Amino acid sequence: MAADRSRLPDVGVDPAFTFPTIVRHVMPNGLAVRTVEHHSVPIVTYVLQIEGGSGADGRGQEGLAAMVADMADEGTGSMSAIDISDALSRIGADYDVDVGADATVFTLTTLTRFAERGAALLSDMTVRPSLHQEDFDRIRQLRLDRLKQLKDSAPATAERAFLRLIYGTHPYGHLAIGADPALRRLSLDDVRLFHSQCVQPTRATLVIVGALSHQQLLDAAKRFVEWPQAGLSVDGVVPASKVAPPAQPGARLALVPREGAAQSELRVGHLSTLRTTPDYPSLLVMNAVLGGQFASRINLKLREEKAFTYGARTGFDWRRGLSPFVLQASVHTAATAESIADSFAEIEGIRATRPPTSDELALAKASLTRGYPRNFETTQQVARSVAQLALYDLPDSYFADFVPKINAVSAADVTRAAATHLDTSKLATLIVGDQSAIADSLPALGLGEPHVLPLEL
Amino acid sequence: MTTSDIDLPYTKRTLANGLDVTVHEDHHVPIVAVNIWYHVGSKNEQPGRTGFAHLFEHLMFEGSEHHNSGFFVPLQQAGALLNGSTNTDRTNYWEVVPTSAIDRALWMESDRMGYLLPALTPQRFETQRDVVLNERRQNYENRPYGLSAMALSSALYAPDHPYSWTTIGSADDIRAMQLDDVHAFFRTYYHPANASLVLAGDIETERAFDLAEKYFGELQAGTSPARVSARAALSRDVNLVLEDRVELPRVYLAWHSPAMYADGDADLDLAADLLANGKTSRLYRSLVYRSRIALDVSAFQNSRELTSFFLLAATAAPGQALSDIVTRVDDELRNLAATGPADDEMERGLAQAEAHFMYRLQTIGGFGGKSDQLNAYNVLLGTPGFFARDLDRYRQATRESVRAAAARFLVGASRVTLSVVPRGRRDLAMAGAEPVSVS
Question: How many contacts (CB atoms, under 8 Å) link A and B?
């Protein structure tokens, strides 16, 4: 039977999918554990999520949480950094740590036959790091040098400057790697204090996902039982999410000069809403229409219609506190002003003048819902998703509820959510680009003279 | 763990028009991966037309005769994730779709394989040419150390060798491309006999073959293009310096090495790991951990179809000299070539290889997923059935085979040294380096 080329084949009924069952446990020391059975390949993933990320860096201590995280694999007990690296590679472990705004997330994946060994290593590294002065000195120097290197990168420069632009001196207003003078001032005592305050079983969630039973997964992690409960009060750390966000001034333009740059790196956005907003499903659909996928208004406009860029996208940079909506693109220098004007027009369009068409709405919802099961293929995907539920206090039924909630979103919901949470009169625009090449084109944007920011990180 | 514990089962058949079809079942998640390789990459380009294979990949997403608009919309409507990529040797395209959308994905892939040209307008061509120029600006020109790949390729290979240019191509060549070039390229390389299709995931094998026949069986067989072959050798050491918008100098060392899957390829992969991967590695310990003269160090065997290169790179810590870094690198290379790896280095290398082969079995689609892997074996080796043997290459490596590979390819051979230094600071390059300019 030959193919009928007169029309595209319809998509059939969405296949049934059983989302992972999460079982919750609490260890005697108060550590919250969530296990998920995942029986495909004999692999196990541990995600240890600890409350306290870059947002917990004290004022003038920017970069502290990341230093603490980095010290984990620098030594524990009698093991040096080299010994730890050796031990990890002997079990083929895939280890990394991500310092987010609200939490530090350690991830270790290994083969199930090494499950217990993997958990013991992760536990020893995170709970009982050696925190030696010489390791501290070396790691800090590497990070200072890395900061120097990041000045060469337009995207890194844009990320740093844009956070500062929208959050000001709020604890969310800096990158995890921190800043030079602050990093230089840190001492090993700062690291010890931060570790003792943050790395406590009652501030942590351990997610274990693998090809074992719930009980076996829990048993494999038994080394975590030895994690002592905190003796001292944990009141010293104020969560960034509890710090009042700065008032949002009107639309403004800032520029970090990058002489001779082939492209302008752009960020356009403002502080918007909370991850726990009831409008979350409407905002996901709204974002998919606007700039969250390839076939979205902004990418089709700036890439496919005008060829100004290799790609443009929008999204919410979620945190536990007030989170920003951000558009990002790297555009040809000559197209800088027009790209910004088009971005403003598209954002204004979705919130007022151009509500989503029924085709756009259907496309956005279908792409979000029909593709959803593919997020549950690997142990790491599942473990990180479950950790997100813990981070945002979302229910265990979240995965199963996702598709019906997205499907319930109407065009009116999208418009209302966009009008509520996006505001073109508050957009901050940041350009990292060639000032002399674009200066003449900027006044037409009506955003005033660009505020020129220093490159210093 | 034995070899039989780690395998990637499949069934392969070839359609009458020459299209290879490989099927792998995995029913854990209700999704299917569609993965197509065309055996064409930048190695098939001509000087003066570099960057063409990659620009062509972009055009494959702009519509075909029976779906004459963007490729993304109908597939995102179906919940698909999709992408494509081009390298020196091949161009791949993939979708991961819900099981319910497999017909749509195959309809669209087959339509652009068979009926691309009627949908190709001058305007679509020109737009994608500009998008590619922006991709080049973003990923190479405006990125620190981003132009080093161009400098290394042209230093390692003679100008007529197909690896002497990079896949992104030269900006002037991209600007000069014409729509007519596209037609000839499509006819030569985009047809069933030069392609390989893999379906992996939640689909029964027989149904998968039926669908492949239904959508691709009608397409005209083409002629297999001539294989590209070219010899590559360096007759002497080459020492270059490139100025860039960077804060810290970096040195690259590059050697010719055996082609992908050839003798010595896996040995050099293991050598790269024990030299520069992780804190236990010799060069990390020497350069970053102990002497602290480097900020980072990396090494890898860049395996390719015709011939490979082994690349080692290290960034100088502030105030440190590249020459001190290279002296220590040379010490470690000589050491490895003289006495080979220690037993514990071999144990670690093998443990990591086994685990990483296992990790690769988790994902059916996308870059590096099981479907992509089956296609790599089929296109480059003629059979998808190489997963277990691929791992055996690492299991069979010995201290002596790694030592011998290091001695032959890294110590006993000429190399390219490239210093990338801040603008105006050629004095920070390795002594005697000749300036090279890349655009």
Answer: 219
Q: Which residues contact B231 (CB under 8 A, 6 or more apart)?
A: B307
Contact: B79, A369; criterion CB under 8 Å:
yes
Average pLDDT over residues A68-81: 97
Same domain, B205 and B245: no
**How does residue A231 score in pLDDT terms, banded at 50, 70 and 90?**
low
Mean pLDDT value of segment B205-211: 98
CATH (residue range A252-452): 3.30.830.10
Q: Do B142 and A369 touch (CB under 8 A)?
A: no
Confidence of residue A73 (pLDDT cuts 50, 70, 90): very high
Is the overall model pTM greater than 0.90, yes or no? yes
pLDDT of the residue at B18: 97
- Coil vs helix vs strand at B262: coil
Does some domain include residue B226?
A: no
Percent of chain B whose pLDDT exceeds 90: 95
* Residues whose CB falls within 8 Å of the CB of residue B187, separated by 6 or more in sequence, listed in order: B222
> Tokens representing B156?
């390692």
Interchain CB contact of A449 with B (< 8 Å): no
Q: Where in chain A is the domain with CATH 3.30.830.10?
A: 23-235, 252-452
Report the mean per-residue pLDDT for chain A: 95
Instruction: Considering only CA atoms, give the Rg of chain A.
Output: 24
Assess whether B386 and B287 both reside in one domain.
Answer: yes
Domain that holds residue B296: 238-435
* Shortest alpha-carbon distance between residue A197 and chain B (Å): 28
Number of domains observed in the structure of chain B: 2
Q: How many residues does chain B have?
A: 439
Please classify residue A228 by burial: count the beta carbons closer than 10 Å to its beta carbon, then call 0-12 exposed, 13-18 middle and 19+ buried: exposed
Q: Write the ipTM.
A: 0.95
Residue of A nearest to B282 (CA): A82
Given B216, B250, B285, the domain boundary residue is: B216
Choose, out of B131, B285, B290, B297, the residue to mutate when testing the contact with A (most A CBs < 10 Å).
B131
Judge contact between A46 and A114, C-beta under 8 A: no
Which residue stretches of B340-434 are H helix? 343-360, 370-381, 387-395, 399-405
Is the pLDDT score of B2 beyond 50?
no
**Which residues of chain B make contact with A383, given a CB cutoff of 8 A?**
none
CATH number for B276: 3.30.830.10
Question: Exposure string (b/e) for B73-86, b if CB count within 10 Å is 16 or more?
Answer: bbbbbbbbbbbbeb
The 10s digit of each residue's pLDDT in B76-123 is: 999 999 999 999 999 999 999 999 999 999 999 999 999 999 999 999
CB-based contact A94 B347, cutoff 8 Å: no
* Inter-chain touch B248–A363, beta carbons under 8 Å: no
Are B289 and A263 within 8 A, CB to CB? Answer: no
**Is the Cβ of A87 closer than 8 Å to some Cβ of chain B?**
no
Q: Do A332 and B137 touch (CB under 8 A)?
A: yes
- Cβ of A309 within 8 Å of Cβ of B317? The answer is no
What local confidence, expressed as pLDDT, does residue B20 receive? Answer: 98
Do B174 and B68 lie in one domain? The reply is yes
Distance from CA of B106 to the nearest CA of A (A): 9
Q: Which of B381, B32, B46 has the alpha carbon at shortest distance from B230?
A: B46
- Cβ–Cβ under 8 Å, residues B275 and B268: no
Domain identity same for B209 and B323: no
- From B65, B77, B351, residue closest to A367, measured CB to CB: B77
From the CA of B148, how many Å to the nearest CA of chain A? 15
Q: Do A93 and B100 touch (CB under 8 A)?
A: no
Confirm or reject contact between A263 and chain B (CB < 8 A): yes
Q: Quote the tokens at residue B22.
A: 């490989």
Instruction: Tell me the sheet residues that pair with B33.
Output: B96, B200
What sign results for the dihedral spanned by CA atoms B171, B176, B178, B182?
negative
Whole-angstrom Cα Rg for chain B: 23
